[in-house]
Specification:
Blueprint: H1 2-18, H2 23-44, H3 52-56, H4 63-89, E1 92-94, H5 100-130, H6 135-142, H7 151-181, E2 182-184, H8 198-221, H9 223-231, H10 236-240, E3 257-263, H11 285-294, H12 318-327, H13 358-364, E4 368-373, H14 382-388, E5 393-395, H15 397-402, H16 418-433, E6 439-444, H17 466-486, E7 494-500, E8 523-526, H18 545-552, E9 561-562, E10 565-566, H19 575-579, H20 581-589, H21 593-599, H22 604-613
Parallel strand pairs: 3-6, 3-7, 4-5, 4-6
Antiparallel strand pairs: 1-2, 7-8, 9-10
Helix pairs in contact: 1-2, 1-4, 2-4, 2-7, 5-7, 5-8, 16-17
Length: 614
């Protein structure tokens, strides 16, 4: 690209000088246009935009890149020659020069068009490329710092919505500038007077472009979700939230250990159709067997069918689901006010301080607690939540580097892959189990994260599809880890919870399934002494995992409710069962003064009030 750019600059310089045209402006315009057009062509023909050798030069091993660079340069030179020819013939003449007010209005026009374009292209990319995304999820992720974000997603954002917006702005503002400063005619004409009303026209067009972009963006996301999030109130918290700190929980004399494993994007839907899934072949045979034969799974399906929990707003991405499953309350940014969102700080002083979580309950009972993950715990506030709500020892990507377990410059997938995670889990679990106190060992897998999952040389190709292969391989890894635990002395007194964090966001994977099929998040409770419960035809969500996990540890819960959650081992109906799935989902989308005041107390709520009073 660079060599052809230099060649383009030389040719355009010679051409412009020869025809007495403005050289600096012309060369700059052609250079920027060439770069944008080349990147746009590369993206549309699936060429790597970050290919450094191709950006500097086009060697033999990048013939497609070189060809597209030549095409882009040819287009720009052709436009230049066409402009000069028409100008020399008198068909195009300069008719106006901007004054300072018109330049200011033109710059605002560019900013408005760019903002509107980026809003639309970002929303379109999010909803169509990622899939399974709700508005509350977008707001929460936007409120977080970039540190720890998947670099692939950042690159995709730059290559798709950002580049599309820049390219559209380049074309549109070039057209506006050209037709505002030039006159086209079939005969030679004298220079016209300056156009006095350009500034207000620019502002009007810019405002129209901004409003149009935002409107299209909201349409992509869904008017109902946006309306509910900002303008509708729910009374579910006022009427049904039970503060866990006020409940007199009764632990057994001999406290049970807990191993809680969040399985990234793990759906019951990955099973075959004969047992409730949607696949022709069972991608998760081991997890299916654990749920149907060995442990206790709660399912929305009939008896003998794999099923699971329903996904709800505020529990539809990893961090929010982890919080919801352990606090009994969905996680959302307060009213979507990003600039005052305390959760967006690198180290939040108070993260969801109004909830009383599973970690705090177990901390009070002298449990040793540890959180293990192969990614960066600080992403999306996970470190802050688990440190502030249970004083967990955090072992993440940085911990592995500091311990010398991985090289200083090692970075695979979200940090390090699950092969290493399960090895470190065995060591960490053995370490915490050797202490005399009971323990809560929590971990999070990552290989099955979208897009297509993380594949290694050892991942068998059984299905001809990368994501299917990764899901099946993860199923095997989890099973082997459980079998290892069964051989350990601590297992007899340990309850294991395996649960997905949310439905997969890999849009292509379920593109052709029956739209009436109800996808669900996987769950199973292993090694409990529970015998009486209703486990099929249940409607429940992440918030119900909190009291159910404590019940699996033989903890007595007066009323069988904590937060918005209901103990699934009891005969009490969940809020979703009482209200219906769609109604409960809708209520969780809405804002709540009770939520902001009592659960966000001291964090986003106070920050927002302070901003309002300034």
């Amino acid at each position: 690209m660079l060599f052809i750019l230099i060649f383009l600059i030389l040719l355009s310089y010679i051409t412009l000088t020869k025809n007495n045209k403005k050289v600096i402006f012309g060369v700059l315009f052609l250079s920027v246009g060439y770069i944008l057009l080349t990147l746009f062509l590369w993206r549309n023909f699936n060429r790597a935009l970050g290919n450094l050798p191709a950006l500097i030069y086009s060697p033999i091993n990048n013939p497609q890149n070189m060809a597209l660079c030549v095409i882009a340069a040819f287009i720009m030179l052709s436009l230049l020659q066409l402009y000069i020819l028409a100008s020399n013939k008198g068909y195009i003449s300069r008719s106006n020069y901007f004054n300072k007010w018109q330049w200011m209005a033109f710059i605002l026009l560019m900013l408005f068009v760019f903002t509107g374009s980026l809003a639309y292209t970002s929303s379109y990319w999010t909803m169509n490329d990622m899939g399974n995304v709700r508005f509350d999820q977008i707001i929460y992720i936007m409120s977080q710092p970039l540190r720890g974000t998947d670099p692939l997603k950042i690159r995709e954002f730059i290559a798709k919505p950002l580049l599309s917006a820049v390219f559209f702005v380049g074309i549109s503002v070039t057209a506006v500038y050209f037709f505002s400063t030039h006159r086209m005619t079939l005969k030679k004409s004298k220079q016209s007077k300056k156009k006095r009303f350009l500034a207000p026209i620019f502002l009007f067009v810019g405002a129209l472009a901004l409003v149009s972009g935002l409107t299209l963006s909201v349409r992509e996301i869904g008017y109902a979700d946006v309306k509910a999030y900002y303008f509708e109130d729910t009374k579910v918290y006022d009427n049904s939230y039970i503060d866990p700190a006020t409940v007199d929980l009764q632990f057994p004399k001999k406290k049970r250990n807990l191993v809680y494993i969040y399985l990234e994007s793990m759906e019951s839907s990955y099973a075959d159709k004969s047992i409730g899934g949607i696949e022709e072949e069972n991608l998760i045979p081991e997890l299916s067997n654990m749920a149907l034969q060995e442990g206790i799974q709660f399912s929305h399906n009939d008896s003998g069918q794999l099923g699971g929990m329903m996904q709800i707003p505020g529990a539809n991405q990893t961090a929010s689901s982890m919080v919801s499953q352990t606090s009994g309350a969905p996680l959302r940014a307060s009213n979507g006010v990003l600039d005052v969102n305390n959760y967006g700080m690198e180290e939040p002083v108070a993260f969801f301080p109004g909830v009383y979580s599973l970690g705090e309950v177990l901390e009070k009972e002298n449990y040793n607690q540890m959180l293990l993950m192969g990614s960066k715990a600080g992403f999306a506030g996970r470190r802050a939540y688990f440190e502030q709500h249970g004083d967990y020892e955090i072992r993440d990507y940085y911990w592995a580097k500091n311990q010398g377990l991985i090289p200083e410059d090692y970075y695979e997938w979200w940090g390090y892959e699950d092969d290493k995670l399960f090895d470190y889990a065995k060591e960490s679990l053995t370490e915490i189990a050797d202490k005399k106190e009971p323990f809560n060992f929590t971990m999070l897998t990552a290989d099955t994260h979208f897009e297509d999952g993380y594949v290694t040389d050892q991942t068998p190709d059984l299905f001809g599809d990368q994501y299917s292969n990764v899901i099946h391989d993860s199923d095997k890894k989890v099973s082997e880890f459980i079998e290892w635990m069964k051989t350990q002395p601590f297992y007899d007194n340990t309850t294991v919870v395996l649960v997905g964090d949310h439905l997969t966001m890999d849009k292509d994977f379920f593109e052709t399934i029956d739209p009436n099929y109800q996808r669900s998040v996987y769950n199973v409770f292993l090694n409990t002494d529970k015998t009486e419960f209703k486990d099929n035809n249940r409607l429940f969500s992440a918030v119900d995992m909190y009291p159910s996990t404590l019940a699996a540890l033989d903890v007595q819960i007066p009323g069988n409710e904590l937060g918005l959650g209901v103990n699934l081992f009891s005969d009490k109906k969940t809020l979703m069962e009482q209200m219906g799935y769609e109604k409960f989902d809708q209520e969780m989308t809405k804002r709540s003064d009770y939520y902001d005041k009592h659960l966000m107390q001291g964090s986003d709520y106070n920050v927002e009030r302070k901003a309002d009073n300034q």
